[in-house]
Amino acid sequence: MTDRRTRSGGSSPLLKGAALLGGAALLSKLIGTLQKIPLQNLAGDEAFGLYSAVYALAVMWMTLAAAGVPVAVSVLVAERTAEGDEDGARRVLRWSAGLLGASGLAAFAVLQLAADTFALWMGVPSAADAIRMSSLALLFAPLTAVLRGGAQGRMDMLRPAASQLAEQCARVAFMLAALLWAIGHGWSPASTAAAVHGGMAAGAAGGLAAMAIPRLRRRREGREAAASVAGRASARSSPRGAAPAPLSASGSAREIAGAGGARMGRREDAAWTRRELLRRIAAVALPVAAASVAAPLFGLIDAFTLPRLLQAAGQSSAEALASFGAYNRGIALLQLVVLAAGSAAAALVPALTAARTRRDHAAAGDHAALAMRLAWWFAAAAAVGLALLAGPVNVALFADGRGTAAMALLAFAAGAGALQAVAAALLQGLGDLRSPALHLAAAALVKAAANALLAPAFGIEGAAMAAIAAYGAAAALSVRRLRRMAAMPRPGVRAAGRAAASLAAMAAAVALLAAALHALAGGLPPRAAAALTALPCVAAGALVFAAALVATGALGPREWGALPGVAGTRWEARLARLAAALRRGRPDPNDSTHFIPPKG
Predict the structure, then answer these.
(1) Are 530 and 565 in contact, with CB atoms under 8 Å apart?
(2) 70: left (phi > 0), else alpha (psi -120 to 50), else beta?
(3) Best CA proximity match to 309, nearest among 118, 483, 454, 482
(4) What span, in angstroms and rounded, lies between the C-alpha atoms of 466 and 241?
(5) In the chain, at which end, N or C, are there fewer CB atoms within 10 A of the end residue's CB?
(6) Concatenated DSSP letters of 504-571
(7) Residues near 574 by Cβ (< 8 Å), separated by ≥ 6?
């Protein structure tokens, strides 16, 4: 009975731990994205552009130094722990720490020595100090990644989650303190950006402390407890005054020879184990690292191309950095939209994985089709709504309207990015880990080529068009691959028409309400007027779009019945009554109120 309870309930701590770690990662990314707003507000577009360019380079080097190895550590530690090999698990941690420590030191040395070269390649010579400052994080982050992987391998998700939050909080706190100090003392944009980038090292050190201090405390307590137990056992077993029995000459020789042979055997075994361990770490880490490197490529391409292209088009270095900062206002909002879509899609991955494990292809296809339908609606609504509200949102968040046209264009890139994020999560749930990385790598090539073609002629608006092309290519490739794997049907003309009608209703409501609120708030300060325009319009747009989807029959029992926590609850009955009211009591013949959602 104990075994049965263990088997039935064993997955609950795992799911709770995964949810805890995923929630911490989401909150950490959200904090990291939102901290860009006060940075731009206080330091201005030039310092913000310089910070964004160096940050893209730092993230790439952090990824190269540490990506993949924590996953390998987690897998190998879990394997050794499951087999009861605690020494092997500790060996994995030691060698991984040595490997990543060496890679971190190497990356730190490269950035310190080649900072001026990288700054010249960017076309921003003043970025050298910020590059050197950001490299300090490489002294702490790799070891933190190893310790997080080891904790996850032992199913301890609390410490890695706390470490992620501690890292972001320390980074943002240091950044704000350094920013206020730099502004108060009248530092230049280059010096301000360098000071702010010290937050990366402070955050990495905070994350390492959150992992290492509890570990060291437990090890010290374990040694003290072991010494206490050994002392009590020795006192009980050894008579007072007794001396150890002497060894005979032959016995002593055999003892020494045996000990020497055992040590040689352990050395030989350890050498073989080390080679095997490094091979296994590489086998797991390299594919994950390749996938991780693809994500920061967009920011890195912009950092190394846009300032130079803008200067080639006639802008000075300071003007190019300010324009790059205005462009990154829209990038911050794009990242928020993509983050929200990817986090929501991650909730569907366990259901897809379970359906794939049961070989229930019909259920997997149903889940994937539902997720993509919701993703299309979310992406379209986010793109149209943000494009319509780009002006007030820009002023409300960033104090002025510079870069509004680029932000409106980046809204459509955000919609395509949301589609790609959802499709990538679904592909991972179906077991395809390689395709999303390949699609992002191909899209990065599109981004580089489109930047070179469009940015000299259209400035940051051209770079935004390049982002639309790149994210659109990645989304198209991922959706195409997903349709093949999940055997998803193509959307019908009627369903597309209903969604388009709902989107048109939302756009009309947002445009009319924005015009009315702008007229009413005309006597207020510009930033307050923009906020009072943007916030009600966002809420009203979401409500109108959802109501229109229900009213047109695009969103019906077939969709909400498959959502977790809705089927069979009071919410299902409330939604049915709402749908009937919106349709004036006429049932939709294309929806079934008796739809049974797929298992899992």
Answers:
(1) no
(2) alpha
(3) 454
(4) 85
(5) N
(6) HHHHHHHHHHHHHHHHHTTTS-HHHHHHHHHHHHHHHHHHHHHHHHHHHTSS-HHHHTTSTTTTTSHH
(7) none
Alpha helices in 85-140 (DSSP H): 86-122, 128-135
Give the whole-number percent of the chain exceeding pLDDT 70.
72
Of 372, 308, 386, the residue nearest 341 (C-alpha): 372
62 contacts: CB under 8 Å, gap ≥ 6? 137, 138, 141
By residue count, the chain amounts to 600
User: For residue 148, what are its two tokens?
Assistant: 């997080």
- Residue that has been written with the tokens 């009980």 in this structure: 236
Is the pLDDT confidence value at 23 over 60? yes
Contact present, 430 and 368 (Cβ < 8 Å):
yes
Q: Which of 348, 416, 399, 359 is nearest to 529 (CA)?
A: 399
pTM to 2 decimal places: 0.76
Read off the tokens for 549.
């989807």
Structure tokens at 584: 């004036």
5 or 228: whose pLDDT is higher?
228
Mapping DSSP to helix (H, G, I), strand (E, B) and coil, where does residue 596 land? coil
Question: How many whole angstroms from its chain centre is CA 423?
Answer: 15
Spatial distance between the Cα atoms of 448 and 467, rounded to a whole number of angstroms: 9
Q: What are phi and psi of 299, to 5 degrees?
A: -65, -40
How far is it, in rounded angstroms, from Cα 49 to Cα 46?
5
As a whole number of angstroms, the distance between CA 246 and CA 484 comes to 77
Could you count the other beta carbons within 10 Å of the beta carbon of residue 487? 13
Token pair 């720490």 in the structure block, residue: 97
Q: Report residue 442 as tokens.
A: 């191909």
CB 428 within 8 A of CB 349: yes
Cβ(174)–Cβ(202) under 8 Å? yes
Is the CB of residue 521 less than 8 Å from the CB of residue 529? Answer: yes
* Residue 216, H or E segment: helix 189-237
Q: What is the pLDDT of residues 174-212, one digit of tens each?
A: 999 999 999 998 999 899 999 999 999 999 999 889 888
**Closest to 160 in 3D by CA, of 234, 108, 222, 212:** 212
Rounded Cα–Cα distance for residues 528 and 536 (Å) = 13
Token match 């999303």: residue? Answer: 436
Token code pair at residue 326: 């205005």
Instruction: Report helix, strand or coil for 52.
Output: helix
Start-to-end CA span in the chain (Å): 26
